[in-house]
Design a protein that fits this description.
This protein is mainly α. The chain has one domain. The protein contains 3 helices and no strands. The chain is elongated and about 125 Å long. The protein starts with 5 loop residues before the first helix and ends in a 13-residue tail after the last helix.
Length: 135
């Protein structure tokens, strides 16, 4: 059996350290360039997305304005019912008249709520934002 010399062992250790440290290797794979058809498809998808976003913005603005109008109508009905109630209660001389004024107010508020809720329900669901096309 042959015994290794100190120089041979030292060389093997040095070689092991050099090889064992690893080396940085650049990724040699290249990303393929897009073809003209792929570029056109992406551009078309982007244009469709822009159009969908514009349509969504228009739909959400319309939805919000209609919902705001329903809420404004409700608020006006409540203010009118409060004014009517206050006048009726101030003019009432009996407890029955005051009770009737308060009952009429409660009925007016319930009718206003029902009108508002049905107007908002008639709008349907809120428009949904479009999702961006996959690249």
């Amino acid at each position: 059996m042959k015994v290794l010399s100190k120089k041979s062992i030292g060389a093997l250790v040095a070689l092991g350290l050099i090889v064992g440290t690893g080396s940085v290797v650049a990724d040699t794979s290249t990303t393929p360039k897009l073809t003209i058809a792929e570029k056109a498809a992406r551009k078309a998808a982007a244009e469709l997305h822009k159009a969908a976003v514009a349509q969504f913005k228009s739909a959400i603005a319309s939805y919000r304005s209609s919902a705001d109008a329903a809420r404004a109508t409700y608020k006006a009905a409540v203010e009118s019912a409060k004014a009517t109630r206050d006048v009726a209660v101030a003019a009432a001389t009996t407890a029955e008249a005051k009770s009737a004024a308060k009952s009429a107010f409660t009925s007016a508020i319930a009718a206003a709520k029902a009108t508002r809720d049905s107007a908002i329900a008639a709008l349907g669901a809120k428009p949904v934002a479009p999702t961006k096309a996959a690249q």
